[in-house]
Design brief:
Blueprint lengths: L1 E4 L2 E7 L9 E6 L8 H10 L1 H10 L7 E5 L7 E6 L10 H18 L4 E4 L11 H18 L5 E6 L2 H14 L1
Parallel strand pairs: 2-7, 3-5, 3-6, 6-7
Antiparallel strand pairs: 1-2, 4-5
Helix pairs in contact: 3-4, 4-5
Bound molecules: adenosine-5'-diphosphate.
Adenosine-5'-diphosphate (ADP) binds next to helix 1.
């Protein structure tokens, strides 16, 4: 599914984000930037040790913020590591923090004059964020950003599995 927001193409696809041909991919990292399971592990495995070497130098990223490293062996030139909130029922500021993950990554992409970025569904694995709520928050934050910023050509959400894609499609339809 695709939509045009202001000057940017917003696309929802099913796939493996490590294979994306894009200027940057976002990673659902942890605060210590130590790598781990899920999409984080997949990105480090596919991208090789150069990404972790830069993560070690940076050392830390607070929840809701984003830091940039090389894309190593990935097709993407950069990995933008962001730390999603752990979901604790939705009353601990999770929504604001999750929205911030997307806007901080988008800001980093714009600051580097990138034309394209791909996102996974941050916080919806080990961090437990319900997929439908996460889809609404992520898409709303991204659309809001794109209404104010015109330099990105493409933003893709690369969802892992058909079920996740369908939830995102449903939430995007509601927001358009
Ligand atoms: P978090 O700790 O932020 O919850 P996870 O990596 O556990 O991060 O999960 C985030 C989302 O990424 C989940 O919806 C998971 O299905 C998805 N995911 C896992 N591997 C990949 C991949 N290779 N490409 C895209 N999405 C992925």
């Amino acid at each position: 599914m695709e939509a045009v927001i202001n000057k940017t193409r917003l696309a929802l696809v099913e796939g493996d984000i490590t294979r994306e041909e894009t200027d940057a991919i976002a990673n659902a990292a942890n605060e210590g930037l130590r790598g781990g399971g899920g999409v984080d592990g997949a990105i480090h495995r596919a991208g090789g040790p150069a990404i972790m070497a830069e993560c070690r130098k940076i050392g830390y990223c607070p929840t809701g913020q984003a830091v940039v490293t090389t894309g190593g062996n990935l097709k993407a030139k950069y990995v933008i590591h962001t730390v999603g909130p752990v979901y604790r029922g939705g009353t601990r500021g999770e929504e604001k923090l999750l929205a911030s993950c997307y806007t901080e990554c988008l800001k980093q992409a714009v600051a580097r004059e990138l034309k394209s970025i791909a996102f996974p569904s941050i916080s919806t694995g080990v961090y437990g964020y319900p997929m439908d709520e996460a889809a609404r928050v992520s898409l709303k934050a991204t659309i809001g950003f794109l209404k104010e910023n015109e330099t990105l050509e493409t933003v893709r959400f690369v969802l892992f599995g058909k079920a996740a894609l369908e939830v995102y499609e449903q939430e995007l339809r509601k927001l358009l």
